[in-house]
Amino acid sequence: MSSELSFNLQLKIQNPKLTIENMTNEELKSELLLLQPSLGFEEGTEFLTMNIDPEAWPLFAKQLRDKENLFFNYLFCLTCIDWKTHLTMVYHLSSLRYHHNIVIKSKLDRNKPEIETVCRIWKTAEFHEREVYEMFGVNFINHPDLRILILPEGWEGKNPLRKDFEDPVNMIKL
Amino acid sequence: MYRQTEILETIPQVPSTGGDLGEPAGLVINIGPQHPSTHGVLHLVVTLNGETIQKVEPHLGYIHRSIEKMCESLTYRQFIYVTSRMDYLSSHINNLACALCVEKGLQVEIPERAQVIRVLMSELTRIASHLLWWGALAMDVGAITPFFHAFREREVINDIMEETCGARLTMNYMVPGGVMFDLHPNFQKHVHEFIDLFKSKIDEYDELVTNNVIFQSRTKKIGMLSYEDAISYGCTGAVARGSGVSCDIRKLYPYGIYNKLQFTECIEYGCDSFARYMVRMREMRESLSIVEQLIDNIPEGDFQAKTKAVLKLPKGEFYSRVETARGEFGVYIVSEGGMTPYRIKFRSPGFSNLSALDHMARGQKIGDLVAMMGSLDLVIPDIDR
Question: pTM, whole model, 2 decimals?
């Protein structure tokens, strides 16, 4: 497997056809709007940032990875923000072929946060979603193994990175 | 076309009590949390069928300090000190990422001298970190001597760091606006001495370990990770570059003065532990050449830009990416305009690299697990945060 695989790999990487011109943010924007007309773009951010409904996210995520001219194959950051009124999931995506980056945000209900998992699209999401699950209590639908990862056993129900988390014993307030 | 595999399809079901077809029940053993080869408090639950690994399940959190929560109550000058405690082997580069992220929000110009010092320190740190990894990997696969060789040279770098930064491991030298102090007067002389020393030593390492038949047979075709899987698992650094992925942040999204420097991105196509080993060995040479390019060209001037005593970032989001010795390190700051960040997220390279371990180890022998883990170069505080 090894020698054949590495030979194919060298061909694939050195193939000049694959080094296509980088799309500008405006071109990306129009391309993404074709896929999902309901996207809400944010202004004045470093990466192209957009908001999407949690219901539309799983299909859109698959399109982002599989469409040849987008090819967002690398999820480099997955996190969540607690805004006290709602939670926001933040996905940082990058394409290692075209080197363009986007940020996808999705607003979740704080009392019953639920979103479809993306760990079958980007495998790295499996661990990152487990971390968000324990820290924020977000339920990832269809996640294969949604358990506590970093926190000790028995922490279910308390979500330390939420803003209203209180621990009078171990937390020191400055 | 992207290889589409469903995770659930690729994971074979492990019979826990003996399957219907008379398969033996998986034997579950615990490696760690206190085990010399895990290099820290990592706990692996390994399911075995005879000698063959069926499943590896990492249990994390033995050194979790909730640094992200702590940072929410620390100011933009204070939180950098905490990040040295994450990846303690490349603390300079962690500090640099945080400083870059704060500078992005403040929009300050960094003096040329500080830029050069930052790159010099980062590359020296990278060599020191790879040296420790090299010694530890060789020890994991059964060779004791390389560990002492590696520490002998690493000591020289640590002495250089101590002289200028005042600390040997958690330097806290990078601050928003530049670096904390100016270079020690002996810095250039000692770095020149180190370059001369290290050039002969690194060839010795190749003779001692790289060309060793036993070492090669312990690492070649061990822990295979394909190009697609490396990207999908979010692997970065030497782990991804050993599988042919071009992912060096210094090349793709240059920060500081990296776009003015001459260096090559080290990529190997073997996809195994030995390829990852070769990437790091070549990276040490590249880092040394970067240090050589800069050491005689340190410009005169300020080592720190003038910044306010109390830093306040404007409302918004800031993300900075740097290449540490282990891979891509990201800092994501969400600011509400105050003195402290509203939310901070550290994207640590080790966390994503570790998640690929299960995929690599399935079907391999238990004796090779240590060689795989060694080639991932895990630092546990970086994973747990």
Answer: 0.85
